[in-house]
Amino acid sequence: MYLTCIAIAIVLFAFWLTLSGFFTPLLLTAGALCAIAVAFFCQRRLRIIDRDAQPLHLLLRAVTYWPWLVIEIVKSALQVSRCILAPRLSISPRFARVPLQQATEAGRVTYANSITLTPGTIAVQIDNDELLVHALEADSIGDLADGRMAARVIHFEQVAGRRA
Fold first, then answer.
1. With contact defined as beta carbons under 8 Å apart, do 82 and 127 qualify?
2. What is the pTM of this model?
3. Which of 56, 70, 75, 156 has the most C-beta neighbours closer than 10 Å?
4. What is the pLDDT of residues 115-150, one digit of tens each?
């Protein structure tokens, strides 16, 4: 937990430094102390810093997840472009409920955001253990039903062989 506070303090200090542009020892010290105070105040008093609020433990997994997601976005964008540019509009819009298998709130939100970032699909609502998805094509729902993206997100949220 303290590592998360320290990481947030470093980010706050870097942000302050970028905005202020002052590099005198007095102001650097004041900026660092303020960043540390804000980070620890948020963690101790407001209790808004936790594992899900700042998931630093997922950073290494993100290195493999994000490139895969970018490839999926490009593939879906090409598929949607083909639908739009085709002489006959071959879309079949529909809603479907997709089961949520992610263990954490961060995992569920990551899954919903990944669906929304992929052209042709949008996550509309998270309800208990289901996600309501709108898709332009039935194939997109089929791709979600096969569970590849859900499995990637589950792998993304796992830490050291156990769920976060």
1. no
2. 0.66
3. 156
4. 999 999 999 999 888 999 999 988 888 888 899 999
pLDDT digits (tens, 9 = 90+) for 84-127: 888 787 788 999 999 999 988 878 999 999 999 999 999 999 98
Q: Report whether 96 contacts 135 (CB < 8 A).
A: yes
Residue 22 CB neighbours (<10 A): 12
The DSSP bridge pattern shows strands 94-99 and 121-127 to be unpaired
Q: Where are the domains of the chain?
A: 2-44, 57-163
User: How many Å apart are CA 56 and CA 46, to the nearest integer?
Assistant: 19
- What would the two tokens of residue 159 be? 């830490």
CA distance 152 to 90: 29
